[in-house]
Amino acid sequence: MTIETRLTAQPAAPAETLNTKDMRRILASSFIGSAIEYYDFMLYATAASLVFNKVFFANLGPGFAIFASFVTLAIGYVARPLGGLVFGHFGDILGRKKMLVLSMLIMGAGTVAIGLLPPTAQIGVAAPIALSALRLVQGIAVGGEWGGAALMAIEHAPAKHRGFAAAFANAGGPAGAILGTLALSLFAAVSGNQFLTWGWRVPFLLSALLILVGLVIRLQVSETPAFKRLEAEGERRRVPILDVLRNNKRAVLLGLTATTAFYVCQSMTTVWGVSVAIESGADKNGVLNIKAAAAVLTLIVTFWSARLSDRFGRRRLLAVGTLSGVALAFPIVFLMTNGTLWGFAIAIVLGNGLVQGLLYGPIAAYVAEQFPTRNRYTGASLAYQGASMLGAGFTPMIVAGLALLTGGLWVIGGFWIAILFLAFVAVRATPEGTKRDLD
User: Fold this and answer.
1) Which PROSITE patterns match (predicted)?
2) Residue 279: inside a domain, yes or no?
3) How many domains does the chain have?
């Protein structure tokens, strides 16, 4: 390819504003698509706290049933790095858009199948085995989703708005959690005593309709300018993961450590917190409604902190978030376990709304900006989804285990503080990415 041909083949640089028709469509696609996929993924997390221990692990004692339920929850998070690697590889080779469409189709199929799965009382041990396999499918799908959605927003956006643009992909997470929680709460009220028989299944089956909506939106967006430039220059690698491991190991480790703090906050408040609040005597429907309301606050704080990160830097906002979590960890843990709705409400507003929101806003841009275009999907997904496995996948199981072994809330709070402090150290050791040229 001649120099003249390469120059004419270069796609135009991103616009200098987010307020264009194409950019609005891209941000909407990132937000709505992620919300639908996380509706599916986080719906499972809520059901793991309330349903699966009774439907698929009813032959175990209460403590071990919820532990087993959280083990299946962890399987989805363990699968996310695998999904990130597979989708990241092809996303760096074939493009971001194709992988986003494929991940959504896989997620929808897995979620609907969970809604149709017979209980252990009907098919025996095959039920929890199938549940685990379908959770694996969910994990692979959402592992590929985040990288594509975040990069579609970041690589289209002007440099001075990258953090805010990336937040649309991240904000799909709490938005999906709101939809999933409200759907489960609605059908818990509608089905009454039949909730464990059929009521919990309806929100899973509704995923089929949501997936169709998401596909229509995603098929209308274009591939990113950064990937088109890379494609025009012929610089793509055949095996992006080898490039990441050779040249970007430090970025992966620091990004993974920093992101783990966000996922631990999410699991402590919205998974373990929901379960322990209900077991301590708080009303189930009240807990679910408060959780959904707190997710709205998470959305607001996410966009706010993302906007501030464009102005003051990712590192500064993430440092504020981790230190806020350190200061609030013990009060949150004790409030979640006092058996009252008001205690749970204060705890989840502080932990899920404030601390998680502060961390969530800048994190997508923070991770993605550490990698070059040729391996950004793979590298960012490896760091982010590795953190999801460690922080969200294992935290409910670890905390439930600590509760069984020690019964001490101080140990649980100390575990949370240790993770937050490690994230603070990682953030301070990472270069600031706001001024970095993505190419």
Assistant:
1) MFS, SUGAR_TRANSPORT_1
2) yes
3) 1
CA-to-CA dists, residue 312 to 143, 257, 307, 308, angstroms: 29, 21, 9, 6
* In the block, residue with structure tokens 């080898």: 242
Element (H, E) at 287: helix 284-312
Q: What is the CATH number of the domain that holds 32?
A: 1.20.1250.20
- Residue type for position 344: F
Handedness of CA 170, 171, 177, 180 (dihedral sign): negative
Residue 417 has pLDDT above 80, yes or no: yes
Asked if residue 2 has pLDDT above 60, the reply is: no
Token match 């597979």: residue? Answer: 86
- Residue 107 in contact with residue 41, Cβ under 8 Å? yes
229, pLDDT greater than 60: yes
Write down the pTM of the prediction.
0.81
The residue-averaged pLDDT of 106-125 equals 88
| Containing structural domain, residue 320 | 15-428
Q: Please list, in sequence order, all residues whose beta carbon lies within 8 angstroms of the beta carbon of residue 166, skipping any fewer than 6 positions away.
A: 150, 153, 154, 157, 306, 364, 365, 368
Q: Which long-range contacts (CB under 8 A, 24 or more apart) does 334-341 make?
A: 334/409, 334/413, 336/269, 336/273, 336/276, 336/277, 337/276, 337/277, 337/280, 337/409, 338/280, 339/277, 339/280, 339/281, 339/282, 340/281, 340/282, 341/282, 341/283, 341/286, 341/287, 341/290
| Predicted confidence (pLDDT) per residue in 297-332, tens digit | 988 999 999 999 999 999 999 999 999 999 999 999
Question: What is the C-alpha separation between 261 and 269, in angstroms, rounded?
Answer: 13
Pick from 313, 318, 350: nearest CA to 331: 350
One-letter amino acid of 292: A
Beta strands in 233-341 (DSSP E): none
User: Under DSSP, is residue 438 helix (H, G, I), strand (E, B) or coil?
Assistant: coil
6 is a domain residue? no
**Contacts of 122 by beta carbon, 8 Å cutoff, 6+ apart:** none
Please report, for residues 52, 54, 64, 199, the alpha-carbon distance to residue 129 in angstroms, rounded to integers and kept in the order given: 12, 15, 17, 22
Q: pLDDT tens, 62-104?
A: 666 777 777 777 788 788 889 989 998 888 888 888 888 888 8
CB 423 within 8 A of CB 258: yes
- On whether the CB atoms of residues 131 and 143 are closer than 8 A, the answer is no
Task: Please indicate, yes or no, if residue 436 is contained in any of the structural domains.
Answer: no
Residue 23 falls inside a structural domain: yes
